[in-house]
Hints:
Elements: E1 8-16, H1 21-45, H2 49-62, E2 82-88, E3 93-100, H3 106-112, E4 120-122, H4 123-132, H5 143-154, E5 177-178, E6 181-186, E7 192-198, E8 218-220, E9 224-230, H6 232-238, H7 240-249, H8 254-267, E10 272-278, E11 283-287, E12 291-297, E13 302-304, E14 314-317
Parallel strand pairs: 3-4
Antiparallel strand pairs: 1-5, 1-6, 1-12, 2-3, 2-7, 6-7, 8-9, 9-10, 10-11, 11-14, 12-13
Amino acid sequence: MEIKVQPKLIIHGGAGSSLKGKGGVETVRRSLYQIIEEIYSLLESGISAKEAVVRGCQMLEDNPRFNAGTGSVLQSDGQIRMSASLMDGASQSFSGVINVSRVKNPIDLAIALQSSPDRVLSDYGAAELARELQIPSYNGLTELRLQEWIQERQDNFKRTMAGVVAEAELVETSNARRGTIGVVALDTQGRLSVGTSTGGKGFERIGRVSDSAMPAGNYATQYAAVSCTGIGEDIIDECLAPRIVVRVTDGMSLKEAMQRTFAEAHEHKRDFGAIALDASGAIAWGKTSQALLAAYHNGEKIGDTLEIPVGTEIGCVFSPEC
């Protein structure tokens, strides 16, 4: 008789400075919870972790509040260039696209590349793939992101990046925030999968490559899966997602792996966050930034990290150690 696993799910919508007040928290919470509810019900119905991750990423990309897909930030030349990747833990297959434009859901290109001999494509190659797949051209520009870019151009791009949440009343324009979306899922068959998508830092040099399209920011095996958000260069320097996953693979608990990895990151003055699941169903998150916009379903209820105290680095649920 086949034994079914209780599915688990965690998603994020970025990391950075705290949201302004209760109104901002509740707005983001509603957006995240709606996605959690829909994707978790699909997992309960038996869809694979990979399918759940793709659908979750699509929903986050379609929400203009988050910096991915619709609502992506503009680069220094005023153009949108997005990156996304998908990793299936069961097959340990990584695929992604780098700096793609004019598509609604970059994660769709990542899933299309899962079985390809060439599994990571950049700008022109990704655009050609979109044409081959007959994906319609799409403009993800929003008025708020345009105004944000115009203001920064007038200030000669003094800020190094754009806001994580595209909602004028939710962010303090003087503070930098890091925008990415990510989904990590464990399905009823015990399979793990992870996806991460971003519009980039905003105002960056043309050609800059995000960690979201690298294993550094998005990694999974049969033992654990991690999606990262924050300063991409910091994530790359720490090789964050694989470092956590390899430690779990080598016998550490997920909580221990997160604690050691984030202690090292704190020592190195990194600025990022990560969400994670392991094969036992433990859910974990970590951050060195002020805030991590994450929500999860532990099999019984939905929870989130939106109002955790500043300075709290690690959290976990449904683990014997928590």
